Fold this protein.
Amino acid sequence: MRVKNRSNKRSYLGRRKETNYIKPIVIILSIILLIAVLYVGMRIVSIKNSDEFNMSKLSVYYLVSENVSDDSNMNNLGQAFNKLIIINGEKRVAHVINIPQNLFVFSKSVDASNTNPRDFAVFFAQTLGIKADYTYSIILKREYLKKIGVKNADELIVNFGKRGLKLIDYFTIRSEVESLRPDSVITEVALAKLYAGLGRFNISQHEVPTLTKLPLKITVGGKTFVRIYADEEKFNELKNELEK
């Protein structure tokens, strides 16, 4: 009888030790989960309460392909576009203007392929009478495109046009911005607003009026340039489209 009692006591103590071992794990996991929830909550509040995220503010984004075409492939140049995206929360629309990479505005001697992206975005927005509160430039690096699971600007617009800003983005957006730096002028809040605006608002596509469909090869002073000239007389038509 004594042997039997000792055996039962040992079995009871074993179960007790096992129970004491599980409790700390549950507590640790609960604390980690609580920290994660608090972190996401703070991220959401800080981003959505930022003035940059305010949808009543007009934000302009200039998306530029990392690899600009050259005159070695003349037939494809006319199909290579950068994107000027205007997030207009008041009208609930995301305007997407397709800008040829080799666009040349003759009256201002501005060449899109040889101008700082943000400077070109500011210039072109002002040319169209757009009074932006914020202007950003995004050089679409391969690392960034890989992170968001797309191949180019067109896929980016389609993808976020369908999904918008998701909870998971609050975890990944910092890494995405870091992959864009130092070439791009963009913040975490601004990128979050771009995702949200594309998903929340109607996307309206526009084309820059040009004098020719394909670029021209121009030689000036012994130098050769590949340009597609803007039809500046039709800029008012594009302005009217954006005001609708």
